[in-house]
Write a structure and sequence with these properties.
The chain is of the alpha+beta class. A hairpin with a 2-residue loop joins strand 2 and strand 3. The longest helix has 40 residues.
Length: 550
């Protein structure tokens, strides 16, 4: 264990960052992990400094256990309030790290790294633990290993064990775990998505005052989201992954009844969007009604004036609470995936996984096309050499995949915009953090293809008037997706409920979901940077000499 005590001031922060950097490098931690931990250490000390009224000292402890380092900061003082944890920002010079210190950016970053920060106040001492490591990547790899392992053991079990033994093991062990996991995801889906959308909508005005540039950025983001959904629909229609009707027994009564009576009209779809009571959207997890209520509440929260602070804190607390619950549940995903995959394997064999592989390939093609769109707008709208963009941005594209989160990549993305592309901070200081929460083109592609894929397996044809409501729901759900690993899965739950598909069928893609989300982050961040570059070029806020310099 390494220890150090520093003063809680600007000089002490610099000294603390040097200590953290040197110690983690000596612990042989990856450079990205070192930079992330330094960022979180700085942000933590900034908030501690802002919350104290007198000079204090911070005790820093760093230790490594099973390859993962932990940085612990301790300082005497009163318990930090919600406002102090999320809204305080101070202008410190962090150019050596290449990070901007805008308060809005900081707030989003802390949400992105929420799983790595543990806070406790006891006996007048504030203690913050910062976990150094890529939690999302580790979870994705464990899930993928569990998925492949279950396929292997399922095949072996079918080959060497009597059928009665296999069925007994499945009925009394694997199936109960699978059902409990699905049930608890159903339990948290509606409130998690509801609070997340409210906070997202109410947050729109917090970055900057509305203006021409703001509207231009927002317009590009919405346009790219719509295009992503359209690309997802067309790619799915072209490839048609999966065997139609393979799991027709998982069709809900809702869809069967609607199909029997013919397609629902667009007018009926619009009318049904508005719930008759506040409880119905949560009981039925009706995506359109849930989105309608959340957007309505989000707009109201941003316009209620004097009481907005208290109301925002309430919904922010709800968002944080269910994000934390989601994170805790996602930690057991590898176990649930192993059980569910084993169960599917012994009953359906390898043919179902061929369908899943086809879905993954379809998603990859869709993401490739949306990234090609970014290249085209740089060429056609920005009138810049797209090959320079690709060459300079490629290292960050790899980093985003490794980190598995567009939000967690914000510091590196901002550094890239500033130092590699020469974009003015007037643009990227707003567009990058804003885009990280609303411009999730990769999620739009994935939700569209995955939803249509699972519906196809159930024998449901969604290419009717109902497709318009689903398109709208996908865009809103992508914009307001919870900031946690596995958030795409929760949004998919909402969509499948709207389609009338049993949520049990999500077990087919849980094994690859986390890996796909790592790929989605690449498309999401690339879109943010491309649109930021195009808008900045149109406003003459790009240093073209720096952009062209290889």
């Amino acid at each position: 264990m390494d220890r150090k005590t520093v003063a809680l001031n600007n000089e002490g922060i610099t000294e603390a960052l040097d200590f953290v950097s040197e110690t983690l490098k000596r612990y042989k931690q990856p450079s990205k992990t070192v930079n992330e931990t330094m960022l979180l250490t700085e942000e933590t000390m900034v908030r501690l400094m802002a919350s104290t009224t007198k000079d204090e000292t911070v005790k820093i402890k760093i230790f490594k256990n099973i390859g993962i380092a932990t940085v612990t900061l301790s300082v005497h003082g009163a318990e930090l309030s919600t406002e102090e944890n999320f809204d305080i920002g101070m202008d410190l010079d962090t150019t050596d790290l290449g990070y901007e210190t805008d308060a809005a950016i900081r707030s989003i970053l802390l949400q992105a790294y929420a799983d790595k920060i543990k806070y406790k106040h006891k006996n007048g001492v504030n203690t913050i633990k910062i976990i150094a490591g890529m939690v999302e990547r580790q979870l994705a790899m464990l899930t993928l290993i569990a998925f492949l392992g279950a396929i292997l053991f399922g095949a072996i079990g079918v080959a060497i064990l009597p059928e009665s033994w296999i069925n007994t093991i499945d009925a009394y062990f694997f199936l109960p775990i699978e059902k409990m996991f699905i049930n608890i995801l159903q339990l948290i889906t509606a409130p998690a998505v509801f609070f997340s959308i409210i906070c997202c909508v109410s947050r729109f005005t917090e970055f900057t005052e509305p203006g021409r540039v703001t509207l231009k950025i927002f317009g590009w983001y919405i346009l790219s989201n719509i295009l992503a959904v359209i690309i997802g629909i067309h790619v799915f229609g072209w490839i048609k992954p999966g065997e139609e009707g393979m799991f027709a027994n998982m069709v809900g009564d809702k869809v069967l009844s609607t199909q029997a009576s013919g397609d629902i009209s667009i007018m009926d779809t619009i009318i049904s969007t508005v719930p008759s009571n506040i409880v119905e959207p949560f009981l039925n997890i009706n995506s359109m009604q849930l989105v309608f209520m959340a957007v309505l509440c989000g707009i109201a929260v941003g316009t209620i004036g004097n009481f907005s602070g208290a109301v925002k804190n309430f919904f922010s607390a709800g968002d944080v609470l269910f994000s934390k619950i989601t994170s805790l549940i996602m930690n057991v995903v590898p176990i649930a995936v192993f059980c569910a995959t084993f169960s599917v394997m012994i009953h359906n064999g390898f043919r179902v996984w061929i369908s899943v592989l086809e879905m993954v390939v379809t998603v990859l093609i869709g993401m490739t096309l949306i990234m090609l769109f970014y290249v085209l707008i740089i060429l056609c709208v920005g009138r810049m050499n797209p090959f320079i963009f690709l060459k300079k941005y490629y290292p960050e594209l790899k980093n985003t995949f490794v980190q598995g989160s567009g939000l967690a990549s914000i510091p590196n993305t901002i550094h890239c915009c500033k130092h590699r592309f020469g974009i003015s901070s007037k643009i990227y200081s707003f567009s990058i953090p804003f885009g990280a929460t609303v411009n999730l083109d990769g999620n739009c592609v994935y939700l569209t293809i995955a939803g249509l894929f699972l519906a196809r397996l159930c024998g449901i044809d969604l290419f009717s008037a109902n497709i318009f409501s689903l398109i709208f729901a996908i865009i809103i759900l992508s914009v307001g997706a919870p900031i946690t690993p596995g958030s795409a899965l929760l949004c998919l739950f909402v969509l499948l409920t709207q389609m009338g598909v049993s949520l049990d069928i999500t077990i087919l893609i849980m094994g690859v979901n986390f890996f796909i989300e790592m790929l989605l982050a690449m498309a999401n961040t690339m879109g943010d940077v491309a649109i930021t570059l195009v808008v900045a070029k149109g406003e003459n806020l790009v240093d073209m000499k720096k952009y062209k310099k290889i």
